[in-house]
Model the fold of this input.
Amino acid sequence: MRTVKSSRPSVASEENDNLRVILSSDHAGVEIRKLIFQRLQDEGWQCNDIGPEDLESVDYPVFGRAAAEKVATGEYRFGVIFCGTGQGIMMAANKVTGIRCGVCSEVLSAHLIRAHNDANMLSLGARLITAEQAWEIVEAFLTTEFDGDRHHRRVNMIEGVSKDQNRRPRTKS
Ligand code: RB5
Done:
């Protein structure tokens, strides 16, 4: 596993734009998301936060999808999303073609979903981990490079699943 801490962006540039991070959550993740967003900004990451702003109940698929679409189009390099468990919003994000999102509750998984799965989104369970744990997980995720090599083939196979599904003939109703 390699980390890329030294290339952490601190000033706006074309290269840094490739490392832009988008954050979203449902109501359960608002507080922890705001803390992580602030810390990312403090540490010089190019990031954006698409809400929600307050604790009023919202539907996690709306916010998971919104962040995932911004990653899938290349507007942002990575997405970090939150809901109560991290699970529902992860499921929504993974429905967007090109998104590879995993839920992590500890640092090693965050390293490995980057190193082995080339994950482009990270999901966190706001009701399951502390803000400090969340920060360590986010940092590990954002600073680990994809190992490539044999993992390329497997990641391509994941992408092949959605391509095959989209090619399947529709049955008439
Ligand atoms: C909201 O109460 C909760 O269901 C949501 O945050 C998340 O845990 C779903 O997976």
Remarks:
- Strands lie at 21-25, 47-49, 78-83, 101-103, 121-125.
- The CA atoms of residues 111 and 141 lie 6 Å apart.
- Residues 1-14 have pLDDT under 50 and may be disordered.
